[in-house]
Design goal:
- The complex is a heterodimer of chains A (237) and B (276).
- Chain A has 237 residues and is mainly α.
- The termini of chain A are far apart.
- Chain B has 276 residues and is α/β, with parallel strands linked by helices.
- Chain B is 33% helix and 23% strand.
- A 6-stranded mixed sheet of chain B has the order 6-7-8-3-9-10. Chain B has a 4-stranded antiparallel sheet with strand order 2-1-4-5.
- Classes of the chains: A mainly alpha (237), B alpha/beta (276).
Chain lengths: 237, 276
């Protein structure tokens, strides 16, 4: 059966792997390290159930970020490696896309709170931490929903910013920013109340299965830690 | 205003895990100056396609002379939208302003009507929707849902569109209110030659009002019928049977000579005739 294997892997490990991949961007160029990392990234893309068309649409939508990376590559890297680094950057973008797709908001909040809790010297309450991370991510989605809703109502009532072009979208945002913010805050407060009184246990035990480490979790972890190991072996030593 | 759907395919959340085909190669024709009822799974998509808020992923939507394709760009969109009015009662968020007066005024000013006519138009449109002037300064977001539906209708009537599209309009109305709006819609069709489209899952509101109905199930155009075709058993595979039809059918099974009535008053007369 065609299946997204990334969904099975432990969310905490996925977060840590993202950090390792991000760190690797600042490593100097080394042949074996480069090939090894690219194959891992490519394997991850291969094991996900996301279609190529979907990925291409994502790349198209990230047009401005790709331009920014091109500028970054031009400044930071040597001329001979620029194309290679561009390939790696695009693979990393897709890798992040696959990983974000494999997360639910709940999983992400739980995983990130667990990772933060590891360095929790101030002993902040982990439940509150988890809830706040969840709500802050949820806020983005709620905000976007209201943004779409307002645009629809406006276009039904004769003001069509979306048909005219991108500049008008910014104008629309300026005009309705306060209202959208107000409505989304209200919605988030409702969700918070829900957690307090109705879904009290929701953030505590929803998906128990994915939190215990299994064989493929260890494999995934070793593959990523090898990147740092290779860096130390090939570059530092 | 004639509306034609030719092999239209429309997808929600394209290229994501929530991707869903709402219309799959659907073709139908809506004549001008009639009331058409549409029973569909996703009620909000069809009005969006007709008013070019969303464009079809493949196929063509024709509204009068204008053709809407995936890549068409309509230069005079405001002129086009002025012809179409949407009363979408299924949405949670319906208003942008904090008073009824501003809300209706917004519609009027967007379509560039004269400022002189603004007040008269707002009051007239409120009266048509069955409300008086006392509602002008009230906050529409804090009113009851049936009153909100009326205000949405008033907003739409204020700019006098040629085609009216109602989505789940009968929601939250009492029986008397439903009958009142049925009368209003009939008047609009007969006296002012409006083309009216009603999209809902409840057939009860269609009875005695609609000239033609369409059923779109799982993205396919499954069934079409006219106003005398409400006793078709196939229709009730896709929606709930109205109580009056259910009642008549059970009586007919017991060998009583009763015709296929749609109106309750006529049904009562028919029962008297059958008994005597």
């Amino acid at each position: 059966m065609y299946h997204n294997w990334m969904k099975v892997i432990n969310p905490c490990l996925k977060l840590i792997s993202c950090v390792i991949v991000l760190l690797s961007l600042f490593f100097p160029f080394e042949k074996i390290l480069y090939i090894y990392e690219c194959t891992i990234l490519f394997m991850v893309l291969l094991f996900s159930d996301i279609k190529i068309k979907e990925m291409l649409i994502f790349v198209y939508k990230m047009f401005f970020i790709i331009i920014l990376t091109l500028i970054f590559i031009n400044i930071y890297y040597e001329e001979t490696y620029r194309i290679l680094y561009f390939i790696r950057f695009s693979l990393i973008y897709l890798y992040f896309y696959v990983i974000i797709k494999s997360f639910s908001i709940y999983e992400f909040s739980k995983a990130s709170s667990k990772v933060i809790d590891f360095f929790n010297f101030l002993s902040i309450n982990i439940k509150k931490l988890r809830q706040n991370i969840y709500l802050s991510i949820k806020y983005i989605f709620v905000w976007y929903d209201y943004y779409k809703e307002y645009s629809l109502i406006e276009s039904m009532k004769g003001i069509d910013y979306f048909h005219k072009g991108d500049i008008y979208k910014i104008l629309f945002l300026f005009k309705n920013f306060k209202n959208i913010k107000k409505d989304s805050k209200k919605r988030i407060k409702e969700i918070k109340k829900d957690f307090k009184y109705r879904n009290y246990n929701y953030l505590q035990d929803a998906y128990k299965y994915s939190w215990r480490l299994k064989k493929y979790d260890y494999l995934f972890c070793i593959l990523h830690i090898n990147i740092i190991f290779l860096y130390v072996w090939r570059v530092r030593l | 205003m004639e509306i034609v759907f030719e092999h239209v395919t429309a997808i929600r959340n394209l290229a994501s895990s929530l991707e869903k085909k709402i219309l799959d190669d659907v073709s139908f024709h809506i004549n001008s100056n009639i009331i058409t009822g549409i029973i569909a799974n996703d009620e909000t998509l069809i009005p969006e396609l007709i008013s070019a808020i969303k464009k079809p992923d493949s196929g063509v939507v024709r509204v009068d002379d204008l053709t809407i394709k995936k890549q068409t760009r309509i230069s005079n969109i405001n002129y086009f939208r002025k012809k179409i009015g949407i009363v979408d009662c299924s949405r949670q968020k319906k208003f942008l302003s904090n008073s009824v007066k501003d809300e209706i005024g917004l519609c009027i000013s967007n379509y560039r009507y004269r400022k002189k006519d603004k007040e008269d138009r707002t009051i007239d449109s409120l009266k048509i929707a069955g409300l008086d002037e006392s509602y002008l300064n009230k906050n529409p977001n804090k009113l009851s849902s049936s009153l909100q539906n009326r205000i949405v209708l008033a907003c739409m009537i204020s700019y006098n569109p040629e085609t009216l599209i109602f989505v789940n309009f009968e929601m939250n109305f009492t029986y008397k209110e439903k009958e009142m709006f049925k009368r209003l819609l009939r008047l609009m069709k007969n006296k002012y030659n409006k083309t009216i489209i009603i999209i809902s899952k409840k057939v009860e509101f269609f009875l005695g009002l609609v000239d033609k109905y369409l059923v779109i199930n799982n993205g396919k155009n499954v069934l079409e019928g006219d106003k005398n075709d409400f006793y078709n058993d196939e229709l009730y595979k896709y929606c709930e049977m109205p109580k009056i039809i259910d009642f008549v059918k059970t009586i007919q099974k017991e060998n009583h000579k009763i015709e296929n009535y749609i109106d309750t008053k006529e049904l009562i007369k028919g029962i008297y005739r059958d008994v005597s």
